[in-house]
Amino acid sequence: MSRLRPSQLSASPRPGPVGGAPFEAVAAEGRLRAALDALYRIDPRLRAAEEAAGPPPWRSRPEGFGAMLRTIVGQQLSTVAATAIFERLAPGGAVPLPGALLAMPGESLRALGLSQQKIGYVRGLADAVATGRLDFAALRGLPDEECIGLLTGVKGIGRWTAEIYLLFALDRPDVFPSADLALQAACCDLLALPARPSAREAAVLAEAWRPHRGAAARLLWHYYGRCRNLALARRLPVG
User: Is 180 assigned a catalytic role?
Assistant: First the structure.
């Protein structure tokens, strides 16, 4: 297995815009609280989620190449398996630089646990960053849909992955990943729908929650997780 030299490794992904200092985290919690209060004024039905599950915690993810690389590695894998593979790829959190990743032989990447499809995806991401087609720093100043378009232009990054990146790494307040099954199930329960809505139907429902769709997503995920564990909601899938 080929080994990467220190010059071929980047530092651990830098924290996202709200993932660092305690003051920033407190400020982010305050923004989320204000957004939730505004959301309940728009749609009082959503207040039942917080009454049942408590307030959702603030969560953020790192931004940049390393963070997206980890997301791609983890697609369709358990958390345990994804973590093990990524730790072999980035020991100690030292993420390979895009050029170094492109230079790694396929057999070395397979030995780390990556499938042939995932090798194609991580190389595609590395190539996009190395050639300048994807500039993570530049995403911070772009509108949501433009960011999503640039991210989904890279093979292996779908709309859901791009929306999760915007919501948790870039702290975008009005993103709602409508294809997420947990969000759909929570909508079904809270809004007393006859069936779980499709991605398109969930997106239409969420339109009413602008400009606080990100807060709605955080609330619904929290509600889904708590209700799944505590069996508070009748129609949420538990399998």
Answer: yes
